[in-house]
Amino acid sequence: MDWDDLRIFLAVARAESLSGAGRRLAMDASTVGRRIARLEQAVEAVLFAKTPQGYSLTAEGARLVGPAEAAEQAAAAAAEATRGEAGISGLLRIGAPDGCANYLLPQVARSMCEAHPGLEIQIVALPRVVNLSKREADMAITVSPPDTGRLTVQRLSDYHLHLAAHADYLDRHPPIRAPEDLRQHRMIGYIPDMIFDRELDYLSETGVETATISSNSISVQMQAMRSGAGLGIVHDFAIPFVPGLRIVLPGHIALRRSFWLLRHADDRGSRRLSRLADALIQGLRAEVSRLEAMVLPAATGRT
């Protein structure tokens, strides 16, 4: 059995479509279909059932996933052995929530690529947890540790959030001296039924029940605040990116959250991914510290 056929089989199993697998493999969907047909002929079994939702594994296909993933790990280990330890090359795909992906990972990725010229990094910003079982990414950053799944979990870094608004908004509206004053103001936050992790339910910390402007993207919320549309809970590390943004009620509303790094349990033996994970952890911690230090301690209530 050809390993390359198994590689294509895994891509279809994870993407649940020929076109999705083709995009991941940089291959035409019709070619993917022909290769799957060739593999099915070789194993004398139908591996996928075509449904309105896409391609789903048959019982025979599900039995092939384990051996195919074992072959994938063996191929990766062989590639690592030939590359040696001098530098890290190849593709790394990182899944992350919106705030981390927009305000932290670009700088961290730059440093990692400068240290390893042969490295290519893809940042996947999704309003949900990246599915590592389907290999949507090599590793994922989340705002809470998972309860289930064959994953290795490492604490990445703590970070802080505060209520903030643009100076233009604050100049045009009544002063805010206590949390009760917020009832006179417009709030910006997440769409309630699109909050994919309980740690993102920031609005409840303000005592205000509903947001006037809401989005499932923290970047959209930040742009709304930049325009002077209202107040919202923001990451301290994102504040330096929005000149004019001011922290409000630091002594009353101050949140701390954590980022977690997730990897598929089968990747524990990969020296390459372990080295990349270490570089990512060090880089992200340093970037959170650098950006948060730019926010005046007097304004945040921290020392």
From TrEMBL:
The keyword Transcription applies. The keyword Ion transport does not apply. It holds the Pfam family LysR_substrate. Keywords: DNA-binding, Transcription, Transcription regulation. Residues 1-58 form the HTH lysR-type domain. This is LysR family transcriptional regulator. It comes from Paracoccus marinaquae.
